[in-house]
Structure formats: C-alpha cells, structure tokens
Amino acid sequence: MKKLDIQSLEELNEFKSKVKIVDNLYKKTKHYGFIKIYADKVVPLYNQSFYYNYYIIMELGERDWEKEIQLRLVHQRYYSEYELYQIIYQLVKTLSLMQQNNVSHRDIKPANVLIMKGLYKICDFGEATIINGNGVVVQNVRGSQLYMSPILFYAYNHNVSQVMHNTYKSDVYSFGMCVLLAATLSGYTLYDIREILNIQQVTKIIVNKLNNRYSINFINLLLKMLQIDENLRMDFIQLEHYITNFWK
C-alpha cells in the first residue's frame, strides 16, 4: 500500500490521472511488465482545509533493480550477457507497448523498475504523460539527472526550463544508462560519459569498460541506446524490432 499526502484537489487529480494511466495500460494489454493496481481510495482530512490521504493498493515487488545492482556489486556478481539480454528484452517490450499506447514514462531509472519472481516491471509513473503523435514535444525538463538524455541534461545545466525533444527517444537513452549501470555495476562509468557529447569518445570509454566481459554485439546494442544525436537514436518500437531481429 502506498500512502500519499495530498495538499490540494489539483494535486489529487494529477495523482489519480497517473494511477489511471497505469491501470489502463495493464487492463488494455494484460502485459506482465505493468504493475497491477487493485484499488485506490481518497480519504479527506476534514480537520484541515483541502488536505487528503490517497491510498493505492498494488502488487508488491521483491526489490527494485537498483537494490539488485547494489547487491550484485557487494558480491561482485556480474550479470552474464544472457541475463542482460533477458532483462533488456522484457523491459523494451513493456516500454514499446507504452509507446504504442501513447504513454511516455519520463523518469526511467533502476529504482523505478521492480523485480517480481524474475519479472522486471516498470513502476512509479509520477512523471508519465500522454503523448500524441510521433513523440516530438516541447516539455518542461523531467527525469533524474544521471539518466537524462543529452538534450535534457544540457537544458538542465543551462537553466532552460523547456526543451523540444522526442520524449520516447529520451526514455531510450535513460534506459541505456540503466543497462550500462547493470553491466558495469558502477555509477562511475555513467559519470564518465555524462557530459561527453562526442559519440566516438563515449564509444571508446564503454568499449574499454565492457570488452573483457561482453561481446561486441552486446556493446553495439548498448551504444544504439546511448546514441548522442537524438535523430540517430531509436525509439522503443524501433528498438523492439531491432532486438527481435537481433535474437533471430
């Protein structure tokens, strides 16, 4: 059960709309990658003006992906390439279904992925929004700094509140940073490439970090997600097609 302390009707309606997005995704697709929401309830606090408690009953995860990565780091238990392919395939399928249903998550990071009996599920839709069209929009900068796409990170660092970008492709970059963290078990690599805007330099750093443990095919897949130029980066639907053919 998640309990939210809400201070205004506007804020309450915003949270309820996020819950509805998740609920509709699961009911429409029946896909395991979405969290099941069993019930939600608003409790007004009559002793205060415009205050509410909002309760959400949902599936309980064993742990999130960030904690899993931390546990593996403690025991120096690196993911095999096959394990990472399985995780990538599960999450890309889920995120592709979101795109097909015009939903962008906008805050993809390991802490927002829950693990349940070997299944990886997208959670925390607090920044999610409905996107119509091809995904190119002018939006306020959203997301966690370490995982932001280059165009969003640049805007954030230069105090630009709004930016035009492809929100699905920005999410793909964020997902690529998650995979890089899982492959290295180290946030230092993410910081190493965070402010580099030259794909050749990024490639050199990633190859040096991963080539002793993973194949060039895996590294190339990762680099496709971490392409600096948004125009050259795939969205999730394209990435799903690429991975499906890659598996074949």
Record the SSE blueprint:
Elements: E1 2-6, H1 9-29, E2 37-44, E3 52-58, E4 63-64, H2 65-74, H3 81-100, E5 103-104, E6 113-116, E7 119-122, E8 129-130, E9 136-140, H4 150-157, E10 162-166, H5 167-184, H6 187-194, H7 199-210, H8 216-225, H9 236-247
Antiparallel strand pairs: 1-3, 2-3, 4-6, 5-8, 6-7, 9-10
Terminal CA distance: 41 Å
Question: Which CATH class of the largest domain?
Answer: Mainly Alpha
Q: What strand order characterises the main sheet?
A: 1-3-2
Shape: globular
In angstroms, what is the radius of gyration?
19 Å
Total domains, how many?
Answer: 2
Structural class: alpha+beta
* Biggest β-sheet strands, sense, barrel: 3 strands, antiparallel
Q: Portion of residues in helices?
A: 40-55%
How do the helices and strands follow one another from N- to C-terminus?
EHEEEHHEEEEEHEHHHHH
Number of strands: 10
Query: Per DSSP, what share of the residues sits in E-state strands of 2 or more residues?
Result: 15-25%
What's the rounded overall pLDDT mean?
94
As for the CATH topology of the largest domain, it is: Transferase(Phosphotransferase), domain 1
